[in-house]
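Input record, target 12 of the design panel.
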């Protein structure tokens, strides 16, 4: 496997050096072909994701396919302007001159994608990498083999293997890939594996984007529209059975509205998934036995307000609301990444700070409130990747916003032009003109200091 990987890297290096990918028309041609193939294979993707973890057609369309097609259309239409050298103002000391920023591709890129949105999170960064003019080795998750197989078929139908190739396999394949030298690495996954990727990249000083996770808080204060908050939290948390990096990880509910919130939460849960979510066509399964066992362990010893049912044979865990767990409990010690939602009540703002500051900077942050001063204070006080006021997860839908983490929740960002920029090196070029050459910069410097100070604004 190592030998094959090394050959692929050499082949991609040779392909990149042909300069073909430097042409915007070449990139657009392949992005257009990719768009056609994505549309053509929609049915296969839907079937694959259902086989991998019982994901409904509706969720596949809204979370996996529609966003990809939108990203492709937008990238194709904007690529000429994104790829054009950008003029910037020259500085006086370089007079006469002009200055430009060129966006150039890094070269050979490695994209390692996760299992929770295996189609979307594999192809979305790929779009940015291709748009920026790179070659790509894509490593999809081995935990979703049906989806990974469709991805490989789509890529093989569109790209020469020397340009873009898919390598399937488990952790050992990822290790082999990370042992190689790349020009850029893009990883989406857990914090623990993100640290492994960062260490591997550091061996070659390879730049990286890390899209990780963390414990994303969700505050509901006494001024919130409680029923609407419950509805939007149920949707954002239990989509994909809670296996979403930006899902609310725990709730911080003002004690004055706690009972009312629980009442509405149960109502909205029933509306969304019925009396028994196990029978719902809209509620997926846990990805594998290992994750099912991890989540089941989190349930042990907790007070259940809603849900709490499990079925190991079917890898099912019901949407569950948990009452007042301690910060030392397993469920509050790590990112949940499943359909379990702890609720902690507060009376004073100081408790909010004690809890939120207990954890690393989260990927996402949510607050339900109509108190503008409180909202502004909270949004300014805490550091996080991205957030929403009076909703959950919807910041990811705006291509004009960068998506990414901070601190342990990740580094770098993408979506829209931000993806193109992440996979591009900003190369600065100054062009000097010859019709004037100021002698002040040249030795000997005797008698020039006063004039220099005037020129650069030190007098």
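The sequence produced for target 12 reads:
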């Amino acid at each position: 496997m190592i030998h094959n990987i090394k050959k692929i890297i050499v082949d991609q290096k040779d392909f990149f050096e042909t300069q073909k990918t430097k042409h915007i028309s070449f990139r657009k041609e392949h992005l257009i072909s990719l768009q056609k193939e994505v549309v053509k294979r929609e049915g296969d993707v839907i079937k694959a994701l259902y086989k991998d973890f019982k994901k409904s057609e509706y969720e596949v369309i809204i979370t996996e396919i529609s966003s990809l097609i939108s990203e492709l259309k937008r990238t194709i239409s904007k690529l000429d302007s994104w790829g054009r050298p950008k003029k910037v103002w020259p500085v006086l000391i370089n007079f006469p001159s002009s200055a430009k920023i060129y966006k150039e591709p890094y070269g050979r890129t490695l994209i390692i994608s996760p299992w929770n949105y295996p189609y979307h999170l594999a192809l979305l960064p790929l779009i940015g990498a291709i748009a920026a003019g790179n070659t790509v080795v894509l490593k999809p998750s081995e935990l979703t083999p049906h989806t990974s197989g469709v991805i490989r078929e789509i890529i093989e139908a569109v790209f020469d293997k020397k340009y873009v190739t898919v390598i399937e396999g488990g952790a050992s394949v990822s290790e082999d890939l990370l042992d190689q030298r790349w020009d850029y690495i893009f990883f989406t996954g857990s914090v623990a594996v993100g640290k492994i990727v960062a260490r591997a990249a550091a061996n070659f000083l390879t730049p990286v984007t890390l899209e990780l996770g963390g414990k994303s808080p969700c505050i509901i204060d006494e001024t919130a529209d409680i029923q609407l908050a419950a509805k939007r939290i149920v949707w954002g948390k239990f989509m994909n059975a809670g296996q979403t990096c930006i899902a609310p990880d725990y709730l911080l509910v003002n004690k004055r509205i706690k009972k009312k919130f629980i009442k509405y939460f149960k109502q909205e849960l029933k509306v969304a998934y019925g009396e028994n979510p196990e029978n719902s066509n809209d509620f997926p399964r846990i990805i594998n036995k290992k994750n099912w066992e991890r989540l089941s362990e989190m349930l042990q010893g907790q007070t259940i307000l809603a849900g709490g049912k499990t079925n190991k044979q079917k890898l099912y865990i019901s949407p569950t609301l948990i009452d007042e767990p301690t910060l030392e409990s397993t469920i509050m010690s790590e990112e949940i990444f499943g359909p379990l939602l702890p609720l902690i009540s507060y009376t004073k703002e100081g408790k909010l700070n004690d809890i939120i500051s207990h954890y690393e900077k989260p990927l996402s942050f949510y607050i339900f409130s109509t108190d503008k001063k409180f909202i502004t204070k909270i949004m300014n006080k805490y550091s996080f990747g991205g957030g929403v006021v009076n909703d959950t997860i919807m910041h990811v839908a705006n291509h004009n916003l960068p998506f990414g983490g901070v601190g342990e929740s990740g580094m770098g960002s993408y979506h829209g032009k931000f993806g193109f920029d992440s996979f591009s090196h900003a190369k600065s070029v100054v062009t000097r003109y010859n019709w004037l050459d100021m002698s002040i910069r040249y030795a000997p410097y005797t008698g020039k200091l006063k004039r220099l100070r005037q020129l650069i604004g030190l007098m």
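The chain has two domains: 2-212+409-426, 217-401.
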